[in-house]
Amino acid sequence: MNKALPNIKEDISQLEQMLKTEKDARLKERILALYLIKTKQAKTRIAVAKMLAKYRTTIGDWFEAYEKNGMSGLLTIKTHSNRKSSIPPDVLEQLKQKLKDPEGFNSYKAIQILLLNST
After folding, report:
1. Are residues 26 and 61 in the same domain?
2. What is the reported pTM?
3. Residue 90 in contact with residue 119, Cβ under 8 Å?
4. For 56-76, how does the pLDDT look when each residue is reduced to its tens digit (9 = 90+)?
5. Whether residues 69 and 112 fall in one domain
6. CA–CA distance from 59 to each of 22, 48, 82 (Å)?
């Protein structure tokens, strides 16, 4: 059975304004998902997913965030701050120092070589 679509509180003109001013493409997609429902261009989560080339579960997660916390919930992108960096701290510091140097790196390959030789 299809889950009910969220009750969108913002009117079409508000959503259009948000679409025009939002710079982050990921956030713009989320607003667009609401816009498609509000303007009746899409009638189901699956239709929104197809239009935005996303999984239906992703659209469902967005709508759930919107239902729980409104627009601020929808526009909050979760980050995984508990991930450990794959670059050791001392190597990262070397990289930062080299990037501050006006001469820096002459290519992306030079950065790769630094990282390979430091690990």
Report:
1. yes
2. 0.67
3. no
4. 999 999 999 999 999 999 999
5. no
6. 19, 7, 25
